[in-house]
Fold:
Amino acid sequence: MNTSPELRRWERFSPAERIARAVLYILTAIAVIWSLKTIDIIPEFLYDAPAQSADLFKRMWPFDWAFYPKAIHNALIETFHIATLGTILAIILALPLSFLAARNFTKNPVLRWFAQFIFVSSRSVNSLIWALLFVAVFGPGALAGVMSIAVRSIGFVGKLFGEALEEAQNGPLEALAATGAPRSMILVKGYWPQVEPAFWSVVLLRWDINIRESAVLGLVGAGGIGVALDAALNNLYWDQVGLILAVIFTVVIITEIVTSFLRSRIL
Structure:
């Protein structure tokens, strides 16, 4: 009689999972090959790309430092204003919609669908496309940049803050309602203490993103440092282009450090 224990063969994936993974790999390979054929890559342009890139960076150095006080500084300040005002306007517009989108706050499905529709519409269109639209409406300038940043940010702020509202615990809300507290007091004392960390986290993150997005809106005439970048590119002033790119990179790093510090202090 054989009393030795039966050896079991351990497999990470089931046969069905292995088939699914194989199908996924095949479909991915087909998509990549199809995409390469569709975009029609010209090999000749790839051969001299390293040399062209090296030549371009050589033209950017040394920077034209005299160009900074002439055109970059004021445009950089305008970029900060566009990002900040756009973020504030987005918060004002998104907060009421986030309450409409929260299931535990709004019971009417039509109102929730309306809020979700606005969030999806806002996020579906890139900020540059919004900028092109508002440039056509308001004309070139910072106003178009502010509106494009604001409209683009509504979906981001409203969706994340609405999800934070839905995750609020019902205990404090029911306790306040049982004492006869008005709806405004339930908002202030019930919802706000629970969602305040999420609110500030979303706001700081969106402002950080808007700083980066507002830096390129000037390429389509929506104000900011992108206007100076577009002018330098059109005139082939590569030393000025290099300086502008270095300034944008530095600003992005600084804002990332500042927002991370503020999040750590607030949260």
Notes: The mean pLDDT is 81. The radius of gyration is 26 Å.
